Amino acid sequence: MDIPHSDILIIGGGASGMMAAVAAAEQGARVRILERMDRVGKKLLVTGNSRCNLGNLNLRPEFYYGAPQTFIGQVIGRFGVTGTLRFFEKLGLAWTADEEKRVYPRSGQASAVLDLLRLAMSGNGVDVVCSAQVQKLGAGNGCYTAVLKNHLKYSGTRLILAAGGQAKKDLGSNGSGYALAKGLGHSVIAPFPALVKIRLDSPVPRGLKGVKFQGGLTLLADEKPVRNQSGELMFTEDGLSGIPALQISRHIHGGLGKGQKMTVCVDLFPDLSLEEITADLEKRFDGLRHLTLEQSLITLLNKRLIGPVLKTGGFNSQDSPSSLSAERIQQLAGILKAWSFNVSGTRAWNEAQVTAGGVCTDEIDAGTMQSRIVPGLYFSGEIMDVDGDCGGYNLQWAWSTGYIAGTSAAAGL
Prior knowledge:
13 helices, elongated, six-stranded antiparallel beta barrel
């Protein structure tokens, strides 16, 4: 029985795989996608809270981690947000950007972006094979062969590995691409969850579960600042969530792995200095002598936060605020500006938005996404050791690398 052959065989039908397929097919290549799930683009549908934050107008290498900044800069320099928007506009995308430069489809629907990609693949003759779980890849006789779990085989003159990372297994990213890459001679930086809720070594969060507030976070490693973020935060039963927590999460793994003490300081008043909040408390307490200390903080803090904050500093909530010395007021202000918690880790893989770690980029040509080890093998998307901040940077990486891999593979035929 003849093995179905295509010019370009793509493993993975996520964002980067679909982009690679359309880009290659538009160059005249015969393209086939092998997708493990029962349909392509499942993870794309949940991005940007199902609105699809497909990029950011403020695109710079410093928003990415893992690979050297020079590698990342070359990639997004060749195909960045401008190229991405032109590509999607050609497919029919109407887009808008918010005040933080995050780009969304004007419809506010991630499904609309997926529809455009699926129509583009269909219109360019891309063959999509779903429920195709690749077990093994082979190279020889000028082509690549993919062997599926059901023993079916497919071959291609060029191969693009776009199998994703390890975040959100239920949406297709189960880490299987790493074994395929290793089988072809590539090395893999140990993956770990990124953009994920953080866990605190404290009983405090459990009693505050669901409390939201605008605040700041400072992550410390052995008491040295690692990263600062601010925005909306929320206590969970075992820690913190919200974009600031997600942003600092990728730095926790490395610190704990090195045996460092990881601490997070919560700033409940990021818009005020320590001196300003101290002066505010002094004025407030002087005018509210008839109330208890707990009552005097109502409207200043979320009521559920008052008790835990006072308990942290050893304050009696029923004392009169007039009984506090200047030193004790300053101590309370210090807690409001830097409420300290030890960090025990992060949540598990299925709660992570992206994967940190992956195929080592030293083994990949940034100009073409082609393997430096195996000619005719290309990489795109999250399978590589690159992860970005929230705000459209990870999808932009998928578009950039997918487009470069697809056009480069087609040009090499």
